[in-house]
Design brief:
By secondary structure, the chain is mainly β. It has 2 domains: 83 residues, Elongation Factor Tu (Ef-tu), domain 3; 64 residues, PRC-barrel domain (SH3 type barrels, Roll), CATH 2.30.30.240. 8% of the residues lie in helices and 44% in strands. The chain contains 3 helices and 12 strands; from the N terminus they run E-E-H-E-E-E-H-E-H-E-E-E-E-E-E. Strand 11 and strand 12 form a beta hairpin. The mean pLDDT is 93.
Amino acid sequence: MKKDYLEIGKLTGTHGIKGECRVELWCDSAEFFCYFKTLYLDPNGNEKLTLKSRPHKNIALTKIKGVDDIDTAQRLAGKVLYMKREDCPLPDGVNFVQDIIGCTVKNIDDGTAYGTVTDVIRTGANDVYELKTADGKTYLIPKIDEVVISVDTDGGEILIRPMKGLFDED
């Protein structure tokens, strides 16, 4: 079951003395983060925040409504920020990383289950799925059309056609 609220970043400290906060980004970019005017301090959407953000180097700076001084902002350091899934509809074929993690990876040709996705690594050229097998081995699956045939996050399954050498132990 997909979560309604997804982790998008973490408040890491303050910026200046007027209550602005630094945000460690857990999303694609500061521009994506800055799109949101409402985020949440809780994975159930109970603590709603209204904010205005801007990109700054490799982080985002955000001004949260009602947080007007450094002391109040410092008390928020370490808190995780959540976005509401429905606030960001994705195009077909695009998935949230959090939905991919936990999917079972299977061979499209013979049904062999290889393991579970434990991480998604962004390389620039293409994403790479980190796969952990039942016996604890780790493999890296490049997300390229020749290997990853389909991703069904609703069904929790990724079908692949492994390239030669992908699972070889030699």
